[in-house]
TrEMBL record:
GO cellular component, one term: endoplasmic reticulum membrane
Enzyme Commission (EC) number: 2.7.8.15
Record-stated family: Belongs to the glycosyltransferase 4 family.
Keyword Endoplasmic reticulum among record annotations: yes
Transmembrane segments: 35-53, 65-81, 93-116, 136-153, 160-180, 192-210, 217-238, 244-266, 307-329
Protein name, as recorded: UDP-N-acetylglucosamine--dolichyl-phosphate N-acetylglucosaminephosphotransferase
Catalytic reaction(s) noted: a di-trans,poly-cis-dolichyl phosphate + UDP-N-acetyl-alpha-D-glucosamine = an N-acetyl-alpha-D-glucosaminyl-diphospho-di-trans,poly-cis-dolichol + UMP
Membrane topology: Multi-pass membrane protein
Localization in the cell: Endoplasmic reticulum membrane
GO molecular function: glycosyltransferase activity; metal ion binding; UDP-N-acetylglucosamine-dolichyl-phosphate N-acetylglucosaminephosphotransferase activity
Record keyword S-adenosyl-L-methionine present: no
Swiss-Prot/TrEMBL keywords: Endoplasmic reticulum, Glycosyltransferase, Magnesium, Membrane, Metal-binding, Transferase, Transmembrane, Transmembrane helix
Cofactor field: Mg(2+)
Length: 334
């Protein structure tokens, strides 16, 4: 579907130029934009049809499953609107909070958190019911995950590549938790997560083959917000949001580096990309607060492909660190 859709979006003048190749023949090529819409539609069709084979009409999970799909669908729509209308950053930050409404309204799970064992003597409780605060936390997590993929971007293959790495880590985590537990409800929560993250991983791999350096398509905000919302939804309904945030460690760092510019303390340019040198073909870091520029300032100029591979390795190391942390803290922390 991607090559077919590429022709249609070009016809409607939905294209962009690769800024990281400015000054070279590749920098003048019209690259089809917003191809995340194709991945989003295929994902939704697969996830909807899957219900027929897995859930019974009286399944307790059916309402939350459809609410999750409604939130993801809403986010795909808002992402595509953003690609077409070029929504300002401050508005873009709020869009996921609207998309989470179907999930928040349908959520009937627990609103409790398990207090870490070292803190129990100070809190005086083993389990704390947060009530509406838990739903607010869910909304904020969705806003963060959705925007964090969107702002850690700008290189061929980086947006899709980081999604593939995190989605694979989520898959492994869910399989490990199902194998380690004998609680049917706990197993079902992690199985539910796999039902949504597996098609995300598969469709993202297809898109990565077109978006890898040199990109023949751009994914657009449609894909980044869709991927972020899907991973937020599986983390929330699978009840492992803490683990999810550690999987997002590079994105958290990127967000912290971006805070001064995102909130207007420092001037924020339209594109916070590294500087491309057409003579050497290398990217050099700018003062802008992104992980991409920060990495280049520390390790020096790199080609776009090399830089993307380095950042994806950092992402994979972050995910491995999460598994190590869970192993080391098991039994002591919770």
């Amino acid at each position: 579907m991607i090559p077919v859709a590429s022709r249609y979006v070009l016809r409607r003048s939905l294209f962009g130029y690769d800024i990281n190749k400015k000054g070279t023949p590749q920098g003048t090529v019209k690259v089809p934009e917003s191809l995340g819409i194709v991945v989003g539609i295929i994902f939704l069709v697969l996830a909807i049809v899957f219900q027929y084979f897995n859930f019974t009409a009286d399944s307790n999970w059916l309402v939350e499953y459809n609410a999750a799909l409604a939130s993801i669908c809403f986010m795909i729509l808002l992402g595509f609107v953003d690609d077409v209308l070029d929504v300002p950053w401050r508005v873009k930050l709020l869009l996921p909070s609207f998309a989470t409404l179907p999930l928040l309204m349908a959520y009937a799970g627990h609103t409790t958190i398990i207090i870490p064992k070292p803190l129990i003597p100070y809190v005086g409780l083993e389990v704390l019911d947060l009530g509406w605060i838990y739903k607010l936390y869910m909304a904020l997590l969705a806003v963060f995950c959705t925007n964090s993929i969107n702002i850690h971007a700008g290189l061929n293959g980086l947006e899709v590549g980081q999604t593939v790495v995190i989605a694979f880590a989520i898959m492994v985590h869910n399989i490990m938790q199902i194998g380690a537990s004998s609680n049917p409800e706990y197993q079902q929560a992690h199985a539910f997560s796999i039902y949504l993250v597996q098609p995300l991983l598969a469709t993202s791999l297809a898109l990565l083959s077109y978006n890898w350096y040199p990109s023949s398509v751009f994914v657009g905000d449609t894909y980044t917000v869709f991927a972020g919302m899907t991973m937020a939804v599986v983390g929330i309904l699978g009840h492992y949001s803490e683990t999810l945030l550690i999987f997002f460690l590079p994105q958290v760092l990127n967000f912290l580096l971006s805070v001064p510019q995102l909130f207007g303390f420092v001037k924020c340019p339209r594109h916070r990309l590294p500087r491309f040198n057409p003579e050497t073909g290398l990217l050099t870091g700018t003062p802008d607060g992104t992980l991409v520029n920060f990495y280049l300032r520390i390790f020096g100029p790199k080609s776009e492909k090399s830089l993307c591979i380095h950042l994806l390795i950092v992402q994979a190391v972050g995910c491995c660190f999460c598994f190590l942390l869970r192993y080391l803290l098991a039994g002591w922390y919770k």
